[in-house]
Write a structure and sequence with these properties.
Strand content of chain A: 5-15%
Radius of gyration of chain A: 17 Å
Largest sheet of chain A: 8 strands, parallel, barrel
CATH superfamily of chain A: Aldolase class I
Low-confidence stretches of chain A: none
Number of domains of chain A: 1
Oligomer: homodimer
Distance between the termini of chain A: 24 Å
CATH topology of chain A: TIM Barrel
Strand order of the largest sheet of chain A: 1-2-3-4-5-6-7-8
Number of strands of chain A: 8
């Protein structure tokens, strides 16, 4: 049963290591590559990182904001990136942080997870301010092999007051998200397809991470300051190959030469594999 | 000083009434119009509602999810809608619920609020799970005449546990959002440009709404069950012309004939004007 997203991702991590290649064509990174801050620059950047990821990373994670800033043309580049990644059999996690209420989520879920959409990815990141249960239209796609990663504890400090606010029974918001994800994933033999985003710069939440039973997407390593060792400790005793570590700026800064990018991808993969 | 978004919006509401025309080209609404669930259908739908809004509504609010589901082509329709709205001098609130951390928000803020972007609107809706302070890149654009609406209390029930979770000092998450917005808007003579989204189906929050000193974007009226009277009571004693009430499905259901749409827009505007 490798059709579901959870097991599919685990198999990729087992085969290729836990590195996720972040694709963030920001103004700053394009400038650092001596490329124009334009749609052409963004396309070159995205395809270069995809190429470096093939065969050495479990997934790519394009940050949608940096494509959206170019409007329809930016989405055209995303569509091309997704097509090429699918041709190369690379898992795509659309880092879109979408989330709304009711049938609006039908629109977003279709956009990022439906095979009929030109933006169809393998998984999408979601923001739970409107409630985890409001995200149900996305969960429906887990039956068809797709996944989601819901923000629990983000890597920035500004999010702490909200994410540690207390519900009835003294449960923190981040723990509620983890618990609701755990409940939806259930305790079957197979890893669930509903994942969470948990910043590597964070303390261990009170909710027992080994009970989440879904994949973890972990930002904050590299430029944001967390080390592979910190990640290893945070996810100690979680299911094998369930932790995917995103590195964006620290990889991109090894570009634009392709050999530099490929070396950086292998180095990060090896560093992360040794602690996870 | 009508350059800032807050006063600009107030002037529109004073002149045209508090109605915001929601533009939600969902599968269900396109089907109810006997239109194909396609990019052509969505374009017809969007431009029809824009036309009905001109001269009778303070703003339009396209729901981005329903365009994003068509990928780059959907964003192409949005670009056309925005161009035509600007030509017709109609305020655009991009209902995107964006929000991330750090420089990622630079990308989203550029996309929706920068005059150099093909998706440049007058204001954008934001989700604060990563913290209100993390949204600073958007706030920078308020100096240049743009605005934002941050989710405080959403109109759906699934969001209640998170939005009423308690911070230190027993402050609810929704009250923290309102307070932080109030602090950023300050108490000057002029209405601030940082608004909040507050569902009309909600109880009055503990934080005194008259202190927010920014505009309110109010969904939940019409198909979601709240009445104009409820809105009037909720925002009693708030600054004049600071409440913008969105109606989407209840307007669209009067289409696709243009005369029906225009009549519905006027009727809703009159109903809302009488209670706000």
């Amino acid at each position: 049963m490798l059709d579901r997203f959870g097991p599919r991702l685990q198999e990729r991590i087992r085969a290729l290591g836990p590195l996720c290649v972040g694709i963030d064509p920001s103004s700053a990174l394009l400038t650092s590559w001596d490329r124009p801050d334009s749609i052409e620059g963004a396309e070159f950047f995205a395809l270069s990182l995809l190429e470096a990821a093939i065969g050495h990373a479990a997934a790519i994670k394009p940050q949608i904001a940096y494509f959206e800033r170019f409007g329809a043309a930016g989405y055209g580049v995303l569509e091309r990136l997704f097509l090429e990644a699918r041709d190369a059999d690379v898992l795509i996690i659309a880092d879109a942080k979408r989330g709304d209420i009711g049938s609006t989520n039908d629109g977003y879920a279709f956009a990022w997870l439906d095979e009929r959409s030109p933006l169809c990815a393998d998984a999408v990141t979601l923001s739970p301010y409107t409630g985890v249960d409001a995200l149900a239209p996305f969960f429906n796609y887990t039956q068809g092999g797709k996944g989601v990663f819901i923000l629990a504890a983000t890597s920035n400090d500004e999010g702490r007051p909200l994410q540690t606010a207390r519900l009835d029974g003294d449960e923190a918001v981040e723990d509620m998200v983890l618990r609701q994800v755990a409940e939806r994933n259930g305790g079957g033999d197979e890893l669930g397809s509903i994942g969470v985003v948990l910043g590597a710069t964070r303390q261990r939440p009170r909710f027992d991470l080994t009970r989440v039973h879904g994949p973890f997407l972990v930002p904050g390593v590299g430029a944001q300051g967390a080390t592979p060792d910190q990640v290893g400790r945070l996810f100690d005793r979680c299911p094998p190959n369930s932790v995917l570590v995103n590195v964006s700026r620290a990889l991109a800064s090894a570009g634009p030469e392709r050999s530099g990018l490929r070396d950086a991808v292998r180095r990060w993969r090896d560093d992360l594999s040794s602690t996870l």
